[in-house]
Each structure stands twice: as structure tokens, then as C-alpha cells.
Design goal:
The complex is a heterodimer of chains A (287) and B (590).
Chain A: H1 23-37, E1 45-49, H2 57-60, E2 64-67, H3 73-83, E3 88-94, H4 95-101, H5 103-112, E4 117-122, H6 157-163, E5 168-173, H7 177-189, E6 194-199, H8 211-217, E7 218-220, H9 231-238, E8 244-251, H10 258-261, H11 280-284
Parallel strand pairs in A: 1-2, 1-3, 3-4, 4-6, 5-6, 7-8
Antiparallel strand pairs in A: 5-8
Helix pairs in contact in A: 1-7, 4-5
Chain B: E1 5-12, H1 17-30, E2 34-40, E3 49-57, E4 68-73, H2 76-81, E5 86-94, E6 111-114, H3 117-124, H4 130-142, H5 146-157, H6 162-182, E7 199-202, H7 203-213, E8 216-221, H8 228-234, E9 244-247, H9 251-263, E10 267-272, H10 274-289, E11 294-300, H11 317-322, E12 331-333, H12 338-355, E13 358-364, H13 365-369, E14 371-374, E15 431-433, H14 447-467, E16 473-476, E17 482-486, H15 490-503, E18 508-512, E19 515-517, H16 523-528, E20 531-536, H17 542-551, E21 556-559, H18 568-588
Parallel strand pairs in B: 1-4, 4-5, 5-6, 8-9, 8-10, 10-11, 11-13, 12-13, 17-18, 17-20, 20-21
Antiparallel strand pairs in B: 1-3, 2-3, 7-14, 12-19, 16-18
Helix pairs in contact in B: 1-5, 3-4, 3-6, 4-6, 5-6, 7-8, 7-12, 9-10, 15-18
Classes of the chains: A alpha/beta (287), B alpha/beta (590).
Bound molecules: thiamine diphosphate (TPP) and iron/sulfur cluster.
Iron/sulfur cluster binds next to loops of chain A.
């Protein structure tokens, strides 16, 4: 890891095609800042992104990266990390990507607890497909495919992660640059699966969950007596859907990442030119 | 044709059929005899008929035949199910004390040996050993030295302590002695032992072993019959070489985990069966367009949908060749024997990395779950070579950067193969995507670049066809007028069928094809033959379609899709029929 990395080193020369004002700009800047500040270099970082406006992030950042298929970025990230634990892995996606098509992977990635960071750009809508309801859309939020609103309660991603024995659960607001970067940084530093749900407003299709709405309603946990290492504290806040919290809701400082509990520490790219020296032992087992 | 002995144990699932059969097979193998096993099992854990069959000879055996010499029958159904294969003089060992076997019907001409398996086992230390008593009885019938059984029992129960091993040895002797004392007769079998050392393994195990030998270090999978054995083999072994197995939440996760590991530079694999291949189809396209080397093993079972999960079929060829939306090149390798499962797995990893392409490695259920003996040299680890293809490091990466120092993971090369940089390589930073991209991996909708990237990916196939020896395996008489072609596990049955046909005065040339795509050009062989017969375990003849397409010649299809593999004698009969039909037609035409 090199110490002279600046956050702009993580910026690619591709021009983002996000709508001017999209929350994803801020989300991305915070991610780059967090990576640089934790001493990572683009050469040793791998970004995996899903599909959606959010998923384009892998294109705009500069590092080793894969822009995968819709909803499946998390297993790719785990594969990278387990094959080479020296690589810093960050996975990014949208609320549709992570909590709808990828919901199964989300729950299992949380409980697998591989040491990586997952950032979800939650705009409470499907942006790239032009404005349909997402799993975090409000019950009465009218969209092209739900003219009366989805008429189902939204998913609470924090609660999903908590129920799946998450070891780091946080939420931030993309435009609150300093705070957001700081929260993502803590997720990167966490030993295990660091999950950050980011309010990242869609200025084109969501006129309800806007910058103004979040600015007015966010409660920063830094301004409360919240203790993220206290399970009960975490539980009551996470299960309180009425409040838009910002900050680290839960953190397990005793978290043992998957790599450690499963003894995965080798860079699997290093293999011999032929079969391993003692490979005939494998044959002899069949005597 | 080998002088063979055919033996089976059958009963209800849960009766310990599998381990009983395996112990006997192992004992034979340790006595220097060749063995070929087959399993007949239903898709449930308890209840349902199940059998384990062992064919053995001093010569190598490649197939099963329609004959049983000795049958250990734990239920009446075992006898009924195998009636076709039993013959005059077949010996049936059963326990007349067992409630369900009290009114047992031994068909005429066969010899029923009523051995009190349970009570003899109890005398030896526990009813649970009654199958071992039966094995002892089978030793007496076949004149097979019981000491050979001992070493198999040691292998099987060794880690449960010496007392258990001793009890089992005693149980076996009780069975043997009972037969010798109560039935003082010659059964006419002589299982000659040799000094040869053989190993006994199935196709899934050979694939797992080939994976480790071939440098695979990461495996992600989701359990499915009959592919799970690959995962079970790797678990607990791959770690010794710095690798890891992940049981994923589903097949979508499995292939994506494997993809991630491959991009990190690991030789990586997933294995599944038909339904799992369908689930992986979307990511398969990503693997191919992002030019990620990945081995996807499909152990075929009977489909469609959940079909007959424990039965044989070769029905997924089209799914592997054409599955997924859009058009992407992929290789399809299909080992034809258990030993080939090992060799082709090693090759699959080399091909995947040399051409940065997904490789389907497919075995059919028969190949995967049946076991066969080989001399250990068949798996010569010194001969394993690993070719990682165009991997760049910090020094060579510069050759593949543009003027601005950006790495070109999809450089348009003449052979279609681009350089690869593992994460951590300084100067190799790049992105991959399932979107169409330029040489740098950046999304593009430029019409010219689209065409050039599609052509580049396709070019890999042409390069491989020119460089790799994608040949068929040839058997029989090269000059024969009848050409038989098959793929997958049919090779064994067909090789023995050649001998049966020879006895009938029929010569055939036989080509067994382990490469489905790219595949060898069989045009000359097809044109040289009067009759071309395509043997495969599916209803429509998916491989026959390919050969007709390649050679523009109609072929005769011999298909089997009842869920059971071809047997050597059955296959010989089917081929004889085809040729008899030909003769009839010829006579009918003036
Ligand atoms: C298998 C599959 N189904 C559907 C799509 C179409 N699709 C693309 S993006 C998207 C929704 C993305 O929503 P979200 O994750 O919230 O991201 P956003 O665009 O809002 O950032 C959908 C449904 C797809 N690409 N793949
Ligand atoms: S559609 Fe919405 S989410 Fe997508 S780029 Fe525009 S503002 Fe951002």
C-alpha cells in the first residue's frame, strides 16, 4: 500500500453520464476518498459494480474493476477477495440491484462476512430503466409501473443485514460529503463485511425522496448517545423505520472475517508450473 | 473379451448398499483385479430400490453387461428387478429370516443360498454388519480369498478403531464359513488375483483430482446430483494446496464467485448439472465477453426440468453449445472415460487460460458416478503441464499500454487473445464489463469497434483449432465399412461391443469424440464409410445433428434415453440390427 495516493487517483478519465445533480456523484467521491485515506492504491483495489445508474460507478473509478450482471456483484466481490486476500474489494450497486434481484446474495454476503465493503446507492427508484418502483420505494409512491404506488411496505435493508448477523451496518447521505466519506472509511476499515446504505437521490425520477427531504429529516447518530457496539441500541434504531438515520448503526468489534475463520490467506494466482510436488498422493488415496 | 465375473448387491435405499458394494469393489481392486462398477439408484435417501453392481476381470473392463453371476438380494424386489440379467446357475444370497424374504422366490435354474445374515452378524458383534456377512458368503461362492476383503474393511473402517475392523473381519468369516459348511458345492468361479496395484475411482473424483493437479485453487458450487461429488472431493483436499471451496447460496452466486476468483488470477471452477447450467446462463455471457478464463463443469443428468435426477442422459449438448443470449464463443470438452475426466480437466484449465474463454467440461452421470480401476501411472502427475497464457507482470505490462499508459485488456490481436493482468499488477489497472467495450474495456456502441471485438472473440476459436490437437480417439478396424461415432461415457460400452461384433463377423471403425466444440473434422472418415452410426444417450441425437451439419451426410442414430447407460452387449445388438436393416434394404432394391 502506498501512502502517497490521492483520492483523484481513483478517478478514471471517463466522463460520467449521470444526470447533473445525481446523488451518485457524491457517493462515488466519498468512496474514492475512503479508499485513498485508508491507504489503498488503485493497483491493489478491485471494484465490482452491478447494473443500474449506480452500477456505472466502476467505469468512472480507476482501479481493477468488473461491471457485472444485474444483482450479482456481491458474489463476484467475494470471489476476488478469497482468491487474493491482499486486494481491497469494494462492491457498489443500487437498491434494485441489491435488494430486489440480488436480495438473496445480499443476505448471504452479510452472513458470509468476507472482509469487503458494500455501498448501496439507495435512490428508492429504478433509475436506469426510467423510473419504476424499487424495493425501498414508499408504499404510495406512484411510478410508471405502479400508478397507485407499490402498495407494499418497503424493504428495510438495515434490518435485513441485522437479521443476517451483519457485523457492520451503516447509513449515509451522499451529499453530506465529509460524513459520508468518513462512514465509508469506517466500513473499509472494519474487519468483515462493511455495509453502507447511502441515500443517493435520483433527481430525474424521484420527486419524493429528494435532497431537501433527506436534509430535513436525517438524524445523525453522532448527535445522539447511540453506541453502535451495543446490540440493543442498534436493534431499536434499525427497527425504527420512521427515522432516517445517518451514521454507524451497528458494529461488532469482535467480528472475525470469513477469510480468517476459514483459513483463506494465500494468493491463489500463485500456482506451480505443473502438478503440486506431492500430487501422486492424491492418486494413492484411491488404492 | 475378458473372462468376467458380475456381482451385485441390491435392496432398499438406506440398506447400506453403496458401502457394501464399494467394499467389495475395493477388495477386488486390491487383489489386483480390474473392476467396473455401476449404480442403480432412485432419487431418495430412504426407500426405493437401489443396487451396486461390480464387473470384474483380470483384464481392464470398460462397461457393464446384461449378466449377473452372484446377487446379494436384501429384498425380493432386488431379484425381480434383475431377472433379465440372472441366468441358469446364478447364485442369489439372501437372508430367509428377514420378514420380507421369508417367502422368497428363487427363479428356476438359479441357486438360492439362504444365509442368516443378521444372526451371524449379531454373533460377530452387531446386526449392522449383516452386509459384511453377505460379502463373506460371496467370497465363498466365488472362491475369492477373504484376506483381500480384510484390507478393504481396514480402509473403510480403519478410523473407527481396530475393534470395529476386527468385528467386521469376523463377520465376513462367519458368512464365508456358513456357505462352506452348509452348501458343500462348487459354484464354478475362480477369481484369480494378481500382483498389480490399481486405483479405483469415479469420474467426479477424477475431475476433482484433475482440478487440483491442473492448478485449480478456487471452487464455488451449489449441491446438485450428480455433480456434488466434485465438490465433496475438493473440500478437505484443495486446502492442502492453498485453495478453497465455497458452498454458495445458489448457482448464480456460484458462477459469480468463480468469476471473481478467476479475475483475481485464480484457476477457478464451478460444477453443476442441467438446472444449474440454466441458472448460470446469464453470467456465462459475462464470463465470455469479459474474456475470463473459467471452467464450468456440467455433470449431465436426465432432463428437462428436474427430469430424472439420478439417471443417465446426454441431453445438455445444445444447452452448452447455444445456451445464453447473444453469441459468444465457448469451448465444450467431453471426456469419454473416467481417466479422461482427469486429463480433460487439466486441459480445460489450460484452454480456458490460453484463450481466456469459458470452457464447459461435461461428463454424463454414468461417467461421474461409476468407478473403474486403472494402473496409477494412468494419472501421471509429472506429465501435467500448466500454461497460463498471456499473463503480464509489472515489466511486460508496458507492451500492452496505450500512449497514456492505460492497459488494454481487450487488445485487438491477430490470434484473438489479449494480455491479462491480475489485480495487484502495477500498471495493469483496467475494467471489464459485460457491455460491449473497446480495447481498454470501456463501454462502446461504436459500430466498427463492436464488429472488431466480436471478430476478435471469435478468432480465438480459429486460433485454437489451428493450434490444438482436437482429435478423436480411434478404435476397431480403420478400414471397416461401418463407422460408429459416439461421445461421453458410451466409449467403454462401444469398445467392448466391438469384440461382440467381431464374434459375429462384423468389423467396425469406432471414433470416440472428446471435443464437442471445437471438434475434429470427421468428414473424411464419414465419406469413407458405407454406414455411419451415431451412438448417444438422448432422444433427438444432438451430436448426430452436429456431425450431419459438418459433413453434409445423413447418419443413422442409435439413441437411448430411458435413463440407463448403454451396455456393451446391448449396443452390439443395436448395431447389428442397423446393419441387418441395411442388408434388407439392399436386397429389396433391384
Ligand atoms: C436480469 C436483468 N433484469 C433486468 C434488467 C434491467 N435493469 C437494468 S437497471 C435496473 C434497475 C436498477 O435499479 P437500481 O438498482 O435501483 O439502480 P439505479 O439505476 O436506480 O441506480 C433494471 C431492472 C437487467 N439489466 N438485467
Ligand atoms: S436517472 Fe436518476 S439515478 Fe440515474 S443518473 Fe439520473 S439522477 Fe441519477
Amino acid at each position: 500500500m502506498s501512502s502517497d495516493v490521492r483520492f483523484t487517483d481513483f478517478k478514471s478519465d471517463a466522463q460520467p453520464t449521470w444526470c447533473p445533480g445525481c446523488g451518485d456523484f457524491g457517493t462515488m467521491n466519498g468512496m474514492m476518498k475512503a479508499l485513498a485515506e485508508t491507504g489503498n492504491s488503485p493497483d491493489e483495489t478491485f471494484i465490482v459494480a452491478g447494473i443500474g445508474c449506480s452500477g456505472k460507478i466502476g467505469t468512472y473509478m480507476r482501479s481493477y474493476a468488473l461491471h457485472g450482471v444485474h444483482g450479482r456483484a456481491l458474489p463476484v466481490g467475494a470471489g476476488v477477495k478469497l482468491a487474493n486476500p491482499d486486494i481491497e474489494v469494494m462492491v457498489a450497486g443500487g437498491d434494485g440491484d441489491g435488494y430486489s434481484i440480488g436480495a438473496g446474495h445480499f443476505v448471504h454476503a452479510v452472513r458470509r462476512n468476507v472482509d469487503m465493503t458494500y455501498v448501496v446507492m439507495d435512490n428508492r427508484i429504478y433509475g436506469l430503466t426510467k423510473g419504476q418502483a424499487s424495493p425501498t420505494s414508499r408504499e404510495d409512491f406512484e411510478t410508471s409501473t405502479t400508478p397507485e404506488g407499490p402498495q407494499q411496505p418497503p424493504v428495510n435493508p438495515l434490518a435485513l443485514a441485522f437479521a443476517a448477523s451483519g457485523t457492520f451496518i451503516a447509513q449515509s447521505f451522499s451529499t453530506d460529503a465529509q460524513r459520508h466519506a468518513e462512514i465509508v472509511k469506517q466500513a473499509v476499515e472494519h474487519d468483515g463485511f462493511g455495509f453502507v446504505n447511502v441515500f443517493s437521490p435520483c433527481v430525474t425520477f424521484n420527486d419524493v425522496d429528494t435532497y431537501d427531504y433527506f436534509r430535513d429529516s436525517i438524524v445523525d447518530l453522532a448527535d445522539t448517545d447511540h453506541d453502535p457496539t451495543n446490540y440493543e441500541d442498534a436493534r431499536s434504531r434499525i427497527l425504527d423505520p420512521g427515522t432516517e438515520y445517518q451514521g454507524v448503526l451497528y458494529r461488532d468489534d469482535d467480528s472475525v472475517p470469513y477469510e480468517q475463520s476459514h483459513g483463506v490467506d494465500a494468493n491463489m494466482a500463485d500456482i506451480p508450473d505443473g502438478a503440486p510436488e506431492d500430487a501422486m498422493d492424491l492418486v494413492r488415496e484411491f488404492y | 473379451m475378458p473372462a468376467d465375473f458380475n456381482w451385485a448387491v441390491g435392496g432398499e435405499a438406506g440398506d447400506g448398499i453403496d458401502s457394501t458394494g464399494k467394499i467389495f469393489a475395493q477388495a477386488l481392486s486390491r487383489a489386483g483385479r480390474h473392476v467396473f462398477t455401476s449404480k442403480d439408484f432412485a432419487s431418495r435417501i430412504r426407500g426405493g430400490y437401489t443396487a451396486y453392481k461390480v464387473r470384474t476381470s483380470v483384464d481392464q473392463v470398460q462397461s457393464v453387461v446384461d449378466r449377473l453371476d452372484v446377487l446379494i438380494a436384501l429384498t425380493q424386489r432386488t431379484i425381480d428387478e434383475n431377472l433379465d440379467e440372472l441366468h441358469d446357475g446364478s447364485v442369489i444370497i439372501y437372508d430367509g429370516d428377514r420378514t420380507t424374504m421369508q417367502d422368497v422366490e428363487i427363479p428356476e435354474g438359479m441357486i438360492g443360498l439362504d444365509v442368516p445374515l443378521k444372526s451371524l452378524a449379531e454373533d460377530a458383534g452387531g446386526a449392522i454388519m449383516r452386509n459384511v456377512v453377505a460379502l463373506g458368503a460371496a467370497c465363498a461362492v466365488s472362491d475369492f480369498p477373504i484376506e483381500n476383503l480384510d484390507s478393504a474393511l481396514e480402509k473403510r473402517f480403519g478410523d473407527k478403531g481396530s475393534a470395529i475392523v476386527e468385528n467386521n473381519k469376523t463377520a465376513a468369516r462367519k458368512g464365508r464359513d456358513y456357505v462352506l459348511e452348509e452348501y458343500d458345492q462348487e459354484f464354478g468361479y475362480d477369481l484369480e488375483c494378481t500382483d498389480e496395484n490399481y486405483v479405483l475411482l469415479n469420474g467426479d473424483e477424477a475431475i476433482g483430482m484433475g482440478a487440483i493437479a491442473g492448478g485449480c485453487r478456487f471452487y464455488a458450487g451449489y449441491p446438485i446430483t450428480p455433480a456434488t461429488d466434485v465438490m465433496e472431493y475438493l473440500t478437505g483436499r484443495i486446502e492442502r494446496y492453498g485453495g478453497h471451496v465455497v458452498q454458495a447460496e445458489d448457482e448464480l452466486a456460484a458462477i459469480n464467485l468463480a468469476l471473481g476468483a478467476a479475475r483475481a488470477g485464480a484457476r477457478s471452477m464451478t460444477a453443476t448439472s442441467g438446472p444449474g447450467i440454466d441458472l448460470m446462463a446469464e453470467t456465462f455471457g459475462l464470463v465470455a465477453t469479459s474474456e475470463t478464463p473459467l471452467v464450468i463443469c456440467n455433470v449431465m443428468r436426465s432432463g428437462p426440468s428436474t427430469g430424472m435426477p439420478t439417471k443417465q442422459e446426454q441431453g445438455d449438448l445444445n444447452a452448452m453449445l447455444y445456451g445464453g443470449h447473444g453469441e459468444v464463443p465457448r469451448f465444450v470438452l467431453a471426456p469419454t472415460t473416467i481417466a479422461e475426466c482427469f486429463h480433460k480437466t487439466v486441459e480445460a484449465f489450460n484452454l480456458a487460460e490460453k484463450y481466456q474463454i469459458p470452457v464447459y467440461l461435461t461428463a454424463d452421470l454414468s461417467l461421474a458416478v461409476t468407478e473403474q480401476t486403472y494402473p496409477p501411472e494412468e494419472f501421471d502427475m509429472d506429465a501435467v503441464e500448466i500454461d497460463r497464457g498471456k499473463v503480464v507482470d509489472g515489466e511486460t505490462v508496458g507492451e500492452w499500454q496505450d500512449e497514456q499508459g492505460r492497459f488494454k485488456p481487450h487488445a485487438l490481436t491477430e490470434d484473438g487473445v489479449s494480455p491479462r493482468a491480475f489485480p495487484g499488477t502495477e500498471g495493469g489497472v483496467h475494467m471489464s464489463t459485460g457491455l460491449e467495450h473497446d480495447e481498454l474495456g470501456r463501454r462502446t456502441e461504436d459500430t466498427d469497434m463492436r464488429v472488431r471485438q466480436v471478430d476478435k472473440r471469435t478468432r480465438k476459436v480459429e486460433t485454437a483449432e489451428a493450434r490444438e490437437p482436437f482429435a478423436a480417439r480411434e478404435f476397431g478396424d480403420p478400414e471397416a465399412a461401418t463407422l460408429v461415432v459416439s461421445w461421453g461415457s458410451n466409449e467403454g460400452a462401444m469398445r467392448e461391443a466391438i469384440d461382440f461384433l467381431d464374434d459375429r463377423g462384423i468389423d467396425v471403425r469406432f471414433l470416440s469424440v472428446p471435443y464437442v466444440f471445437p471438434r475434429p473434422d470427421l468428414t473424411d472418415a464419414v465419406e469413407a464409410a458405407d454406414e455411419v452410426i451415431l451412438v448417444e444417450c438422448n432422444a433427438t441425437g444432438q451430436f448426430a445433428d452436429l456431425i450431419e451439419h459438418d459433413t453434409l451426410t445423413r447418419v443413422t442414430r442409435v439413441n437411448k434415453y430411458d435413463g440407463v447407460r448403454f451396455k456393451a452387449d446391448e449396443l452390439a445388438d443395436r448395431i447389428t440390427e442397423v446393419l441387418a436393416d441395411d442388408d434388407e434394404k439392399e436386397e429389396a432394391t433391384p
